[in-house]
Design goal:
The protein is mainly α. The protein is built from two helices and no strands. The chain is rod-shaped and about 125 Å long.
Amino acid sequence: MFLFIAIIFIAEIIIALTLISYIVKADKAVLQLKSDISKILPDIKTLLGNVKSGVSLLKEKRLWLFAYIRIKRNQYLFKAIKIIIIYTLLFLLKGKCKKAASVCNGILLVRDILEGISA
């Protein structure tokens, strides 16, 4: 019986020593990591400053992009309204006066040529 208790006691001592050695290794690893981080801390601070300026630049560009999209949307909407009005007038005039319809066709042709040149 005493032999069994002695074996269990020795096993517990071995387990405790193994746990203590793992704890000491982990402590050394944490201290090494802490020293490595403290060495590169200034670099981390400068990189975080650069990230902050990059985020503010992205925010600024995002606002510019939304404003640009809003301007372009308004331009295309205005062009679409003009085209709808012109073609509606052309359709109405085509039935009533043939000469007015040919004048409108000529105006549309000139407008398309000018837009083609400006593009």
